[in-house]
Specification:
Elements lengths: L2 H39 L8 H6 L3 H36 L6 H30 L4 H7 L8 H6 L1 H7 L9
């Protein structure tokens, strides 16, 4: 073999080794993420998504539940729209040449109040819907009263652990 052939063979060998190490690292990181998600999903207190539970209900009850929850969401929508608009306005005022902290604080307060009003409407609609169901269906749909979506916690397990209430604070 010539010197040039050896150099080419060495370069190819180094490239293949770098590729193999990178592939191994990627597989290792992906495996770790999958293991974290599986562990998070198996954590006590986590159930399946509420819409999956609704889909398995008796068709007549399922359609009624969906219609009522949609109606509650549509009633709450203007409140959430107003909350987003106020927050966008506060952000725009914050980026303006002159900063008016009183106006920004008032807009943020209006946003929070609108969001609370919307959440209250959603929760009232959910309670009204739940009151018409059998105990087993109520138990299965109870997670709709949760403030946080399980999917959000599954994507960021470190935030879920910080936000999770202490075990001692939950009633037996």
């Amino acid at each position: 073999m010539t010197s040039r052939s050896l150099k080419i063979a060495l370069a190819v060998s180094v490239a293949l080794n770098v590729f193999a190490v990178a592939a191994g690292g990627a597989v290792w990181v992906a495996r770790e993420k999958v293991e974290q998600r599986v562990a998070e999903a198996q954590r006590p207190g986590r159930g399946e998504p509420v819409w999956d539970v609704i889909e398995r209900m008796d068709p007549a009850v399922r359609d009624q539940v969906k219609a009522q929850l949609r109606a509650a969401a549509m009633q709450a929508r203007p409140d959430f729209d107003e909350a987003r608009a106020a927050r966008r306005e506060a952000i725009a005022l914050t980026g303006a040449e002159t900063f008016d902290p009183v106006a920004v604080a008032a807009l943020l307060e209006r946003s929070r109040a609108s969001e609370a009003r919307g959440r209250s409407r959603l929760e009232a609609g959910a309670v009204a819907t739940l009151s018409q169901l059998s105990p087993a269906d109520r138990k299965a749909l109870a997670p709709i009263l949760s403030r946080h979506k399980p999917r959000r916690d599954a994507r960021k397990p470190e935030k879920a652990e910080k936000a999770a209430p202490p075990e001692a604070a939950t009633p037996p």
